[in-house]
Amino acid sequence: MDARTEAILSELGGTLGKIDEEQAAAFAQMVYEAPRVFLAGCGRSGLMVRAFAMRCMHMGKTVYVLGDVTTPSIRKGDLLVVASGSGETESLVSHVKKAKKFGAKVATVTIYPKAAIGSMSDCAVWINAPTSKSEEDTGVTSVQPMGSLFEQSLLLFLDTTIVRMMELSGKSSEEMFENHANLE
């Protein structure tokens, strides 16, 4: 295996190994129990969120990605999941404030759980990964550019959340495949 790949895998293992088990379990439980799940993230974090949306749909969840034209209004009892490395992205902060105003719960995955979004969230999962936009030192360095370590860790964490939800529901991969796109 290439040394660069080994370094990246080592970073991912170290970063994912630091995620708090109770936070991860609470996050999965919130997504599992929510009647409707709304997902938000910007840039590459937004791409990871879209992958999670697809898997949630495969699980049979009613799920929407903010910004899509078919996304309805959020309401009391719904869950807004926000992925934001900085926890301070203005548009996402605004979404969280509105969701809370309408009685929705909020869960976030972030590098900075004490930032604006994490402070307003009902559940905040901390991923200890550096980014070039970090204003404070996380104590972690990466061979990868910019926010890659956070974004990759986010995707793997969200996929692990799906596995947790499969365990909660008793759903198999085969059952989930019944919801896979068939107009391809």
UniProtKB/TrEMBL annotation:
<protein>
    <submittedName>
        <fullName>6-phospho-3-hexuloisomerase</fullName>
    </submittedName>
</protein>
<dbReference type="InterPro" id="IPR046348">
    <property type="entry name" value="SIS_dom_sf"/>
</dbReference>
<comment type="similarity">
    <text>Belongs to the SIS family. PHI subfamily.</text>
</comment>
<dbReference type="Pfam" id="PF01380">
    <property type="entry name" value="SIS"/>
</dbReference>
<feature type="domain" description="SIS">
    <location>
        <begin position="27"/>
        <end position="171"/>
    </location>
</feature>
<dbReference type="InterPro" id="IPR001347">
    <property type="entry name" value="SIS_dom"/>
</dbReference>
<dbReference type="InterPro" id="IPR017552">
    <property type="entry name" value="PHI/rmpB"/>
</dbReference>
